[in-house]
Design goal:
CATH architecture: Sandwich
Number of helices: 1
Distance between the termini: 28 Å
Shape: globular
Oligomer: single chain
Largest sheet: 5 strands, mixed
CATH topology: Jelly Rolls
Number of domains: 1
Radius of gyration: 14 Å
Number of strands: 10
Order of helices and strands: EEEEEEEEHEE
């Protein structure tokens, strides 16, 4: 199955409501990453979750992950994400959730 896309919003000086997407721990997620993108994870669930960010292959073909814990009822802002380290060949950052019950996700970037 394809990953669930997260729309990246561009706020303005007039303000904007953060659009959120429900977490999907089955298909996981991806979003366009311009190097200035921030990911907002809100865990409204009863247990801590992990967000696993996938690194892009380096010039030697190595890959890896970075895991960030989001505690019960916490909201964390992650990023920005360096393009060389995090962008897959299609320019998207991929990330997985260990659980998705009561988890919502938003993304913002001040630059296109």
């Amino acid at each position: 199955m394809p990953r669930t896309p997260i729309a990246v919003q561009q706020p303005s000086d007039a303000g904007a409501l953060l659009a959120r997407t429900n977490g999907d721990a089955v298909n996981n997620h991806e979003m366009v990453n311009n190097g200035n993108t921030l990911l907002i994870i809100k865990n409204g669930g009863g247990a801590s979750i992990n967000v696993t960010l996938k690194y892009a292959a380096d010039k030697y073909g190595r890959t890896g992950t970075k895991v960030v814990a989001v505690g019960t009822t916490e909201e964390k802002v992650l990023g920005p994400f360096t393009k060389d380290l995090y962008c897959q060949p299609d320019g998207k950052l991929q990330f997985d959730l260990s659980a998705a019950t009561s988890v919502t996700i938003g993304a913002v970037s001040a630059h296109p």
